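Design request, tokens follow.
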């Protein structure tokens, strides 16, 4: 069953974030949103897909943005761990401008979607949820674009449903190396939970500057810090932190690197070369830490492992090239999916 929710003004959220931050300065206080990002505005109307999974009613928020001049193709954008459907704003505008219909869901456990207290998070389950949404919308053989954790999800989706994916685009996907096998120590769900309870706007900003934006912070990134900080500081923060802990456990225990040779879908890898992402890297011994998250090597290895994959490298960009250089990224993306 599908239903709509009222759209609030995205510009007001941006203005609030920049006001709180002093256009780049430390915010006076962290915002606070509800467990489904209540009152944080998205740039497009939010729809909700209600369904039952693992014996409980859930709802998946998503964006469904249609072009003025359709080209008959649909792109499905899968967000990363610290991202939401809204963070694809620039890509949604570029893709719809090029004729693509765009679907951008918030996965269960993230952003504006349900935060179940008990849920077996697996990439297979998230892929099944996404497929059910697309089936409801009547979408067949979309182009899957996955970033970070969404890249892992997109890869698993393509492995599960190879005949139902027209093309696969992986943007700085994680899971291209097995961190546990390389020496990241075991971390319990309870330990992840306690770490997540301590998340603040300042810690988010510091991490994203170093990893997502290659050391270059810009005020335009502030709304996305506000989004995450408010989700982690609101009245549902324990539920948010718990699901986040379960998701970190999923990421660390289900690397996709071993299955890359089995991907049978035309694949485009888009890799920011200054990315150094490795979940749990800060917990590893220094000698192990230094060897993790080498995306220039990981991207080339993935391109070699996936049959027929094409690789686009962004030399000056980090983990989020689509946000650091949206115009350059969008040009490369649209060019990369233009061919049948």
């Amino acid at each position: 069953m599908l239903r709509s929710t009222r759209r609030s003004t995205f510009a007001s959220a941006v203005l609030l974030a920049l006001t709180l931050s002093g256009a780049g300065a430390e915010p006076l206080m962290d915002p606070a949103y509800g467990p489904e990002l209540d009152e944080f505005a998205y740039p497009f109307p939010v729809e909700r897909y209600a369904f039952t999974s693992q014996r409980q009613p859930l709802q998946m928020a998503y964006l469904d943005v249609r072009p003025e001049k359709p080209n008959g193709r649909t792109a499905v954008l899968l967000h990363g761990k610290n991202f939401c459907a809204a963070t694809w704003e620039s890509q949604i505008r570029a893709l719809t401008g090029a004729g693509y219909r765009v679907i951008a869901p918030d996965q269960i456990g993230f952003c504006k979607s349900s935060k179940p207290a008990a849920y077996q998070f697996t990439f297979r389950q998230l892929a099944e949820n996404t497929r059910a949404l697309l089936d409801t919308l009547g979408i067949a053989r979309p182009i899957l674009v996955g970033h970070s954790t969404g890249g892992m999800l997109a890869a698993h989706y393509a492995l599960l449903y190879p005949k139902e994916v027209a093309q696969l685009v992986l943007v700085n996907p994680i899971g291209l190396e097995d961190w546990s096998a390389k020496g990241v120590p075991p971390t319990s769900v309870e330990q992840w939970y306690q770490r997540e309870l301590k998340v603040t706007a300042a810690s988010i900003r510091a991490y994203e500057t170093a990893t997502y934006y290659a050391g270059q912070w810009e005020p335009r990134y502030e709304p996305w810090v506000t989004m995450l900080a408010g989700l982690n500081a609101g009245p549902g923060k324990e539920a948010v932190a718990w699901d986040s802990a379960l998701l970190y456990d999923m990421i660390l225990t289900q690397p996709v690197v071993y299955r890359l040779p089995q991907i049978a879908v035309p694949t485009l890898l888009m890799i920011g070369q200054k990315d150094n992402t490795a979940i749990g890297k800060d917990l590893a011994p220094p000698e192990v830490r230094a060897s993790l998250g080498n995306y220039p090597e990981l991207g080339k290895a993935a391109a070699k492992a996936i049959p027929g994959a094409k690789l686009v490298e962004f030399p000056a960009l980090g983990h989020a090239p689509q946000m650091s250089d949206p115009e350059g990224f969008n040009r490369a993306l649209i060019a990369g999916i233009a061919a049948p």
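Comment from the thread starter after seeing the answer: thanks! The first helix runs from residue 10 to 21.
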